[in-house]
Amino acid sequence: MTTLGERVVKVRSKNAGPFWVTIDIFCGDAATFADITTRLDTATVARLFATPLQLVRRFDIADLHVIKLSLPRPVVQGAADDRDMHGAQWAHLLSEMAL
Amino acid sequence: MPTRVLVPSGVLGLGFDRAALARGVAMAPDIIAIDGGSTDSGPFSLGAGQSKYARAATMAEWRDLMAARAALGVPLVIGTAGTCGTDATVDWMHDITAEIAAETGARLRVARLYCSQPAARVAAALAAGRITPLTPAPAISAEALAAMTNIVALAGAEQMQAALATGADIVIAGRMTDTATIAALPLLRGENAGACWHGAKIAECGALCSTNPTSGVIVVDFDTTGFTVEAMAESALCTPHSVSAHMLYENTDPYILHEPGGHLDVTQARYTAPDARRVRVEGSVWVPGGYTVKLEGARVAGYQTTIIAVLRDAHYAAHARDWVARLTGYLEGAIGRQMGLAPGSYSLDFRLIGVDAALGVLENRAGSPVEVGVLGIITAPSQALASEIGKLINPFVLHYPLTDGEELPTFAFPYSPATTDRGALYAFALNHVMALDDPMAAFRLTVTEVGA
Description:
The complex is a heterodimer of chains A (99) and B (452). With 99 residues, chain A is an alpha+beta fold. Chain A is 27% helix and 25% strand. Chain A has helices at 4-7, 30-39, 42-48, 90-95, and strands at 10-15, 20-26, 57-61, 66-72. In chain A, strands 1-2-4-3 form a four-stranded antiparallel beta sheet. The longest helix of chain A has 10 residues, at 30-39. Chain A is elongated and about 40 Å long. The N and C termini of chain A lie close together (8 Å). Chain B is α+β, with helices and mostly antiparallel strands. In chain B, the strands form three sheets. Chain B has a ten-stranded mixed beta sheet with strand order 12-13-9-8-1-2-3-7-4-20, sandwiched between helices. In chain B, strands 5, 6, 15, 16, 17, 18 and 19 form a seven-stranded antiparallel beta sheet that branches. In chain B, strands 10-11-14 form a three-stranded antiparallel beta sheet. The two termini of chain B are 35 Å apart. Chains A and B meet through strand 2, strand 3, strand 4 and helix 4 of A and helix 10, strand 16 and strand 18 of B.
């Protein structure tokens, strides 16, 4: 089974302020971008992060061959139950997701 | 007349290429602008009102930038001084500046822009309906505001312009938006407003918008129709892709950026390459709006003590989750019996490094780790209580058996004592904006002279 990470150049995540995390999927070329944009289901991403679908913002940016997803951090940055201060490890959940 | 801004790096304290800085200085910029902070490392800096970077690193870099300023005779400005931009870190940065000025024998006019907010001011604005929550926002009240250790408002371009208007050689600003520090002068000189904010956003992380992100130094030329950006390190190229991709970075929305007094819309921006090193951007639009400033605040959310044990025994490593569940049950009982504390009055959280320490309940992979690190985090209402709980659980974290009747295991403690007091746990407590009639209403400016 192919994972998203095997198909694209890079998946990264990072805090966008203390309350949001943003994930960038760099597809690398127009053909991959076109393919991934149709196969990546935003609802699946929302489930992966246990986040309500209506709070997930998605931008398909053709010029950059990038799909960007922004969602409220599963845990506010620095809270007692936060496990990843910079939010960079969440990318791997998405990268390892089966397409 | 274009306005040329030299940005030495994304943040003071992280380093920049000295040769690239010299190239930037040779291009005769109108101002040197650098950011001094962010919330990226978490709430500690704002909570405690301290810089996260070493004073020595900050001073070494600031000395170079002050020398560059002296050579050019243009203003040197820093936004969000000392990571969090509280009044205390502005003064910390001022002390460093005064020390360097005394060393070099320079006499300098220094403006300080203070951005800390008295809780009473924010509470009055809350009562007047002038505070609006963003999504998601913690609940606030006058009491909650009064309990915060630090509250800052993010200044925009207007406050930096007021500081520049004092004729200061150096401006040390408290919390500002990352972009406003850079956008202030070109906006003041009437360059295209969309270009000013967009170019500032591209430049705010230094050479991160180039092909050599760690080289630091970039120069942006702002004019009445757009901006042109160039990295100063020989090895760093700005390409339409590297520059436009920077709008993705740490932004929830890659097209819209909210600032005090309006927002930037880059939906129609066009990125072109005049040559192999530079990128030209036109078509960004500034949309004026109401004057609001974002607030940041932090509060103490308890005190922590931590403990680390390593399970190398293959059986324990394979059953680490069961072990922690059994251990936790036992410890909650013991803490209740011996200290009279109910589980809800403190927290005891064991993270299994090698199992799911980074992702927690979201983790969906399982493996067979050689060993498992057990990081115990105790959070309690006082440090004394957290430390006491740490001492109480210490022998059990070392020896607790997986099953009844087996010989007591002994795990690996990496150091003695096994527990570490972490001090206060701070929490971000505001994600709100405050409306202002006058941009300076929530900010203070002082001008002093330092040096020989």
